[in-house]
Amino acid sequence: MSSNNMVSENLNKIKLSLPKGVTLVAVSKTKPVSTIMEAYDAGQRVFGENKIQEMVEKHEQLPKDIEWHMIGHVQSNKIKYMAPFVSLIHGVEKFKVLKEVNKQASKHNRSINCLLQIKIAEEDSKFGMSVNEAKAILKSDELKKLKHVNVTGVMGMATFTDDKKQIENEFKTLKSSFDELKELESTNHDLRVLSMGMSGDYELAISCGSNMVRIGSSIFGERNY
């Protein structure tokens, strides 16, 4: 089977398995433009990258109706490169990142959607803030001043483990945090997106309430580093 058919078959299979209202982010990091085009031709429009520079290069070469999501760790000094076009930034783990996004978005007269990354995994390597830190940001007067940022939800990554029960507990924790944060009233946040779940655990994530999943290898095959 040509890779072309493989990508579109994998995509269609996954899309059929997703409940209504769940957004599929095709994780295209490390994949060449030609492979992304195969997914595009099969109808996929939302792609996730984890390196800003790589995403900028792909954005320049690919159709302009693609929604680019930044799913990796965000370096503040590189935000300016993606500010003209990025649709959603998944991993905001500090208020100062929101400030920089706001500053760069204002130069392009845009408002950029952001997700707060909540730490749910036990591993130290996973980035993120606590629920209380997220609450403090959402309730702060400082956030209200950022006219070019919309906090539209939260994101979290489960521990890398085979223990399904632990992963499920972490997802449920994030869902209840999401529900709690949604109750807070404010001007520039409207929490609708709960981004959790990847190739290995997205079905479990959806059953726990996720409405955005990040899937790479199940679409494109294993990654070559």
Could you explain how this protein is built, in words?
There is one protein chain. This protein is an alpha/beta fold and 225 residues long. It has one domain: Alpha-Beta Barrel (TIM Barrel), CATH 3.20.20. Helix content is 42%, strand content 20%. The chain has 10 helices and 8 strands. The chain has helices at residues 3-17, 33-41, 52-61, 79-82, 95-107, 131-139, 141-145, 164-182, 202-207, 217-220, and strands spanning 23-27, 46-49, 67-70, 88-92, 112-117, 149-155, 189-198, 212-215. Strands 1-2-3-4-5-6-7-8 form an 8-stranded parallel β-barrel. Strand 1 (23-27), helix 2 and strand 2 (46-49) form a beta-alpha-beta unit. Helix 1 (3-17) packs across helix 2. The longest helix is centred in the C-terminal third of the chain and has 19 residues, at 164-182. The mean pLDDT is 93.
